[in-house]
Amino acid sequence: MDERADQIRDYRDLIVWKEAMEIAELVYSLTRAFPREEMFGMSSQMRRAAVSIPSNIAEGFGRAQRRSFVHFLRIAQGSLKELETQTLLSGRVGLLSAEQTADLMTRSERLGKRFVQFVRSLSQTENGE
Fold first, then answer.
1. What number of helices (H) and strands (E) belong to the chain?
2. InterPro entries given for it (predicted)?
């Protein structure tokens, strides 16, 4: 599905939202294995960042204004970058395996590219291009 604003019926149809939800599910699964002392540390931080991504996509869509939607997509992009940093740190300190880190980073980078393309297409549509 093309994610152009004039063709979107519901945020749950968006590829960026679906991929963000998959990442959030994965983060919850991975952080269940973190040590108990990380419950209020890295585990909590990663979960909050991961949940923020699809939540901001949904909130922005719900505002029903393209400019506001783009603003919330950019906030979601920021949360994705937070999650990437937390993922890399978790790998460095041994909370995630190299394979888990690589998988989560690959998914995050793919979603990040989708965000850039989607925001660009919404901005071009808004500017009449």
1. 4, 0
2. 23S_rRNA-intervening_sequence, 23S_rRNA_IVS_sf
